[in-house]
Amino acid sequence: MAVTKHTIVALVEDKPGVLNRMASLFRRRGFNIESIAVGSSEVPGLSRMTIVVDGTTTSVEQVRKQLDKVVDVVRVSDITDTDIVARELALIKVKATATTRSEIIQIVDIFRANIVDVGTDSVTVEVTGDEDKINSLCNLLRGFGIRELSRTGRGIRELSRTGRIALTRGGSNPLQAEKEASTTRAQKPKG
Amino acid sequence: MKMTGAQIVCESLLREGVEVMFGMLGGAILPLYDTLPQYPQLRHILVRHEQAAAHAADGYARATGKVGVCMATSGPGASNLVTGIANAHLDSVPMVAITGQVARPFIGKDAFQEVDITGITLPITKHNYLVLEASSLARTIKEAFYLARSGRPGPVLIDIPRDVFIEEAEFHYPSRVNLPGYKPTLQGHPTQIKKAAKLINEARQPVIIAGRGVLISGASTQLKELAEKALIPVITTLLGIGCFPESHPLSFGMLGMHGMVYANMAVDKADVIIAIGTRFDDRATARVSGFAPNARIIHIDIDPTEIGKNVRVDVPIVGDVQTVLAELNKLVTLAQRTEWLRQLDDWRREHPSIAIRESEGLLPQFVVRQIYEVTKGEATIVTGVGQNQMWAAQHYWYNKPNTFISSGGLGTMGFGLPAAMGAKVGCPDSTVWLIDGDGSFQMSLQELATIVQDNVAVKIAIIHNNYLGMVRQWQELFYGKRYVATPLSCPDFVKIAEAYCIPGLRVTRKEEVVPAIERAMAEPGPFLIDFMVEPEENVYPMVPPGAALSEIIEEPKTRLKALSDSAKLPTSNI
Ligand SMILES: Cc1ncc(C[n+]2csc(CCOP(=O)(O)OP(=O)(O)O)c2C)c(N)n1
Ligand SMILES: [Mg+2]
User: How far apart are alpha carbons A63 and B239 in whole angstroms?
Assistant: First the structure.
């Protein structure tokens, strides 16, 4: 059976040990967690966890059900086939000399990223977007020398109908026009 | 009212209906023990090893259906509980384990006798808690008992730091729990139940596979109604034994690796399987790709993660077995299945499976049969792990729920004696026999002291074959008879018993068997019989590892040679 990327979103009680309980279910079944992002949700006392893993649909469904069994997990779904907005934030520290600095700034501009710190021989870039956008930026900056990279992992919202229209109209970046708008249909489209 | 944490624990236990706890104390849990004299209604049984406390709570829970309680101190006390907790977890046994922890200021500092027991038991408990203030104790205990006994039962551990037992707090016992993430599904989906009924009503060769879920749910009556109303043969798993009377004409024994030939054939040839409260363990299904090739499968279970986990399922029904069966029974109709039932009867006649061969020496199967005869099938039988366990399952007929108590999922040697003790404490009016292996018994025989101190009248039958018999059987069949590390020297068990002030007898010949069992039954307290059996007797029938249910071996003498010649190595673990 084909191994594909799955995005699992869980609403969990904000208690010590919850992350451990969940991670342990993946570890036991030999899954490698690609990214995991945790933060408060709109409900006080509940956190939202977004986990990206590779796996076959049946094996991921088995873990999803196991996750649902964890007492502290209120709700959990595999939203792989749902229309979603997925965003990630990355901080990239790049080697920058007097000669390369302006080139870096140009690239940063094209990606609508920001420079948040400047040192004598480096700059730190902040970028938000879907994974493809961040990957492309990293690839371009790699040539200058990436000193440090820190990514947050996916944050996700299911797409509302109005949201979908607004986003489709919005994308204006020449490089990213397609992707920016990307309602990241994370996997195979439904229709 | 203000109380100490220790008092809150005791008050809460009383409100949960706890009558007995099995445990061993130490520094971290001492404040709780110090409070016990204030609560004489809470009986405490002091074990000699914490693993036995967990197994005793487990045996108590299986025999009574109530939540078993065990306690231990921090560090080694807590870690000694681990195997017993894992055992309860795999067999869905309701249990609450209370452990002392080092005082709050010492947590995380590798303090004396500190282990991270909530971390260690995370994957082997249904849930666990570290309680950091006395004011949360009552709510935590309420939740723990609710979780342990509801839905799919399991063990819950509560870790309580020493200073939390001493801290004072207001005591209010909550009347309800608030667990937004925990809502077991009890009602089966009506559409699914209709689909199942249709499948059953159209089936020509249906079979019920009933597991421990039927016992947990207390659904024996509903199961019997289904079987009789729709005329469906009933086969049980090892842990399902007793959920359907084995003397019933529709009972066709146990399936699986050491199941009856006719039961495995029935499953193999069935067109519809109704699996009730069972998780399709690999010992029951044998090779999954060869399991019930012609059958459409209806699976009724309270735990959604079990659906489709091991075998493909055509009609899943998530819900409480009793509730679902009550609905299903309204929709099933009587069908003519004379041909199918006749076929099963023929198979049973042709492959009796549990016939006992002629022998000069004392056969373990014969011993179990005689215990059945003398106890008139009315005892509660607790087993060790290995051959003794399989013979106890095969050669005794169980007609009442919760009278066969055995470590299934984990297969824990050493489970027997403490579990038998727990069962007897829970059901003092039942006759409790432990049928144990000489190896298994040596893993927990220190509990003889406990049954003497607390006067627990367990009758002990040791199947003494001087081998780790089940493993030896595998070596004989699959490892060219190389008996590495399976020959077992044993102490004089009768003298051991005597040293603990327990009367006992050694039996070496057939004619001594019945008198010895009768003597044991006449004794008011515990009694031990050391049955010196044929050392190299094997358990049959047997599905070799990696084979399908239909490839079951029943005639050892002809098939045995062929097997060791082909040197087929096992693919699963013993
Ligand atoms: C704690 C533990 N260790 C090891 C095993 C592996 N094992 C399974 S059966 C068995 C032999 C049991 O010997 P005995 O209790 O004498 O029973 P017999 O098979 O001889 O009846 C062993 C070692 C186990 N099940 N549990
Ligand atoms: Mg033995």
Answer: 26
Residue B267 Cα to ligand 1 midpoint, Å, equals 28
Could you tell me if residue B140 is inside a domain? Answer: yes
Count structural domains, chain B. 3
Write out residues 18-57 of A within 8 Å (CB-CB) of B.
Answer: 20-21, 24, 28
**Residue B562 belongs to some domain of the structure:** no
A167 contacts A183 by C-beta, under 8 angstroms: yes
Residue of A nearest to B307 (CA): A62
Q: Domains in chain A, ordered, with CATH?
A: 4-82+172-187 (3.30.70.260), 87-164 (3.30.70.1150)
Instruction: Compute the nearest-CA separation of B2 from chain A (Å).
Output: 27
For helices B469-478 and B556-566, give the axis angle rounded to 10 degrees: 70
With CA atoms as reference, the chain B residue closest to A25 would be B123
Are B150 and B230 within one domain? no
Domain co-membership, B50 together with B196: no
Residue B547 forms part of a structural domain: no
- Could you give the CA distance from residue B268 to residue B278 in angstroms, rounded to a whole number? 17
- Which residues lie closer than 8 Å to B273 by C-beta, 6 or more apart? B206, B207, B208, B209, B267, B292, B295, B296, B297, B298
- Whether B385 lines ligand 1, by a CB cut-off of 6 Å, is yes
Q: Which of B139, B170, B201 is the last residue of a domain?
A: B170
- B180 shares contact with chain A (CB less than 8 Å): yes
ipTM of the complex: 0.86
Cβ A83 vs Cβ A156: under 8 Å? no
| Contact predicate B1/B24, CB 8 Å | no
Q: Do B305 and A65 touch (CB under 8 A)?
A: yes
Shortest CA distance from A10: residue in chain B: B181
Are B109 and B218 members of one domain?
Answer: no
Give the domain CATH number at B451. 3.40.50.970
Structure tokens belonging to residue B6: 């220790």
Report CA-CA distances (Å) from B297 to A153, B208, B219, B283, B284: 41, 10, 20, 18, 15
Give the containing element (helix H, strand E) for B157: strand B155-161
3-class DSSP state of B399? coil
Q: Which of B135, B170, B205 delimits the end of a domain?
A: B170
Shared domain check, B231 and B113: no
- With CB atoms and an 8 Å threshold, state whether A20 touches B122: yes
- In tens digits, chain B (574 residues) has pLDDT values of 899 999 999 999 999 999 999 999 999 999 999 999 999 999 999 999 999 999 999 999 999 999 999 999 999 999 999 999 999 999 999 999 999 999 999 999 999 999 999 999 999 999 999 999 999 999 999 999 999 999 999 999 999 999 999 999 999 999 999 999 999 999 999 999 999 999 999 999 999 999 999 999 999 999 999 999 999 999 999 999 999 999 999 999 999 999 999 999 999 999 999 999 999 999 999 999 999 999 999 999 999 999 999 999 999 999 999 999 999 999 999 988 999 999 999 999 999 888 888 889 999 999 999 999 999 999 999 999 999 999 999 999 999 999 999 999 999 999 999 999 999 999 999 999 999 999 999 999 999 999 999 999 999 999 999 999 999 999 999 999 999 999 999 999 999 999 999 999 999 999 999 999 999 999 999 999 999 999 999 999 999 999 999 999 986 654 444 444 443 333 444 4
Range of the domain at B156: 2-170
Residue B190 sits at the chain A interface (C-beta within 8 Å): no
Whether residue B455 lies inside any domain: the answer is yes
